[in-house]
Design brief:
Elements: E1 6-12, H1 16-26, H2 33-39, H3 42-55, H4 58-61, E2 65-74, H5 75-81, E3 88-91, H6 108-111, H7 114-144, H8 146-159, H9 164-174, H10 180-187, H11 189-203, E4 212-220, H12 221-231, H13 238-254, H14 256-259
Helix pairs in contact: 1-3, 7-8, 7-11, 10-11
The structure holds flavin-adenine dinucleotide.
Length: about 290
């Protein structure tokens, strides 16, 4: 099934504007920190934040961070996202989470062509079928290919406190059984989970880049500015471009002032893309 982008700012530094303004002012003031914080007004905070973001006093911006919950994105996208190294990530694992009915992202250009759209959907359905088949067949192999996996199963039997002789009897009874996996699950639940985990970490190799994933991402404001310069740019790929702008919208909800520093490079200076410039610059942002 096709999925859609969902982005939520799930947490951020308390009073991010005050923290930035105070950290910035501290650099140029003999006062103590309590005094600096108490003396800040809405006007002084705005003045300092604007000054710091425009002169590029970047380290001050690192004191505030933003955590986004991101769902309905492709593995293609997250591969691009995690290239932004100055950030923290936690992503749903395909090794531990079985894709019982994986969702996928479809690029708009493919959706615009009904024939390609159909082939694309079919490829996704075929991928799911092959994945399911690989998982089931590997689990069967783990149990019955003793030469290759005997040791692995023996260890699991010990861990799951299963009597080996009893298990051998069960194996004989279920060898030609079509519902082998269901039978294993209902009789030896823990063993089944352990073998399934090993099977899915192999089966996942057949998934397409389009496969949906979920990721939590934390960036400080300096890194977020850099991320947006690159990914709000029209040259960025459609999916990550949409993500970047949605992240800006999320920041706007909590701090319109800080959101002013977020956008494509061309909104703050000349386009850095050279010959690859899109020739459709965004409106400049005035600080
Ligand atoms: C349009 C576009 C096309 C791209 N195409 C490709 C491609 O074809 N192939 C490809 O591999 N990547 C590609 N990328 C990814 C790109 O090269 C960067 O890896 C990605 O944008 C992350 O940017 P960053 O390094 O600035 O971010 P971060 O990793 O978050 O780094 C932030 C900043 O910290 C500093 N920094 C971080 N690490 C180091 C370091 N080790 N040494 C010195 N300074 C450091 C730099 O100033 C950097 O800008 C593309 C990106 C875009 C936007």
């Amino acid at each position: 099934m096709e999925t859609t982008l969902k982005v939520k700012l799930i947490s951020h530094t308390l009073n991010p504007e005050l923290v930035i303004a105070t950290a910035g002012k501290l650099c140029y003031s003999p006062s103590n920190i309590d005094d600096l914080m108490e003396k800040q007004t809405d006007e002084s905070i705005e003045r300092f934040v604007n000054m710091i973001t425009s002169i590029g006093h970047g380290s001050v911006l690192e004191h505030t961070s933003f955590t986004f919950g991101i769902e309905g994105v492709s593995r293609s996208l997250t591969h691009q996202l995690v290239r932004h190294r100055i950030a923290s990530y936690s992503q749903q694992s395909q090794r531990y989470v079985k894709e019982t009915q994986f969702e996928y992202v479809m690029p708009q250009d493919i959706k615009n062509n009904p024939i390609l759209e159909q082939s694309y959907k079919k490829h996704m359905e075929d991928s799911q079928r092959l994945y399911d088949e690989i998982v089931d067949k590997l689990m069967y192999d783990y149990v019955y290919n003793e030469k290759e996996y005997g040791k692995l199963v023996d260890i699991q039997l010990k861990k799951c406190k299963i009597d080996k002789e009893e298990f051998e009897v069960w194996k004989k009874e279920n060898k030609s059984c079509d519902t082998f996996v269901e039978s294993l699950r209902s009789t030896y639940k823990r063993l089944c989970s352990a073998l399934e985990k090993k099977a899915i970490e192999n089966a996942r190799y057949i998934f397409p880049n389009a496969c949906e994933t979920k990721i939590i991402c934390t960036m400080n404001l300096r890194s977020l500015i850099n991320f947006c310069h690159h990914r709000c740019c029209r040259r960025a790929q459609e999916e990550i471009n949409k993500l970047a702008w949605t992240m800006v919208e999320e920041i706007e909800k909590v701090s319109p002032l800080l959101a002013k520093s977020l956008g494509a490079s061309c909104q703050f200076g000349p386009c850095p893309e050279g010959d690859m410039c899109c020739m459709m610059p965004y409106e400049k942002k005035n600080k």
